[in-house]
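Case study: Aminoglycoside phosphotransferase domain-containing protein.
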Amino acid sequence: MVDRPASPDPTTDAEPTPGSNLPALARLLAEHWALHAEDITPLAGGMNSLTWEVRSGSDRWVAKAVPPESKDGFVLGLDLAKRLEGTGIPAGAPVLTAGGLSAVPFAGRVMALLRWVEGRALTGESGTELEVMGTTLARAHRALGTHDSNGTAPARLYLPSDHLDVRPWLRPVITEVMAGLDDADLRTLTWGPVHGDPAPEVFRLDPASGVCGMIDWSGAGVWPRAYDLAALVMYRGAYSMRPLIDAYVAEGALTHDEVERALRPLLDFRWAGQAVYFAGRIARGDLTGIDDPAVNEAGLEAAHRWFADRDDSC
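Here is what the predicted structure looks like once written out:
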């Protein structure tokens, strides 16, 4: 069973930014982890979370804080990371507090202290790296097991509908994508705990040991395993599919038949998720993790291009 964060802390209710609240973060680390940080450095790159590199002597960690609406996926991801590290896959598992918690409240968010995962971030720009990513993803999926989609796990995927009128093309596309999922009959797919957003850079290859880990499990959920494959294809492009899928299937996490049947509707769903995500950010004026509203516009336009230009060869 995953543990839940403690009750909100009224003494740290100011909204943090990566470069602010560093003294409060240092106090929190000392109070809950007995960690007296010598250096805390903001890390860039996240649109949904705030992260800091924490150093003490030769040791380092990542402190990560997510908004309240992301708490469930974050806490699930912390539990999954612990399970993966127990099987030998580096995953950035949480360091428990003195009270045995994985996460605590911080400035209106939920924060955890994560183990540092050594290695370089992969890019997926070579066939070799794609094979490593496919192998690592399959090993993670197998280590985390499956859920029966006819039992306790959900048998449908959902998208929020709050901001589908941001662009005239958006609502018809989402309607079409969800109908495609119904036609695919997701109940017949292999469901289990998945990463949820496995961009190439979450794969960390340690050149010293040759071990590849997977970090940043804060978007985890219980969905079809092929969802993670679809996300990787979305990030790297359709050309990347063959070495990635062959390596994944070789590890026995799914069959080729299931991947081929599930990939297209889930790839459409993943792009639809991108469209809804950026539409929401545009509607709210959300600039978390970016400096220019054009980044949100570009994200939405990339999804639009996918649906305008796609063919049936994927």
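For the exam, be able to explain this: The beta strands are 39-43, 50-56, 59-66, 104-106, 109-115, 120-121, 191-194, 203-205, 212-214, 221-224.
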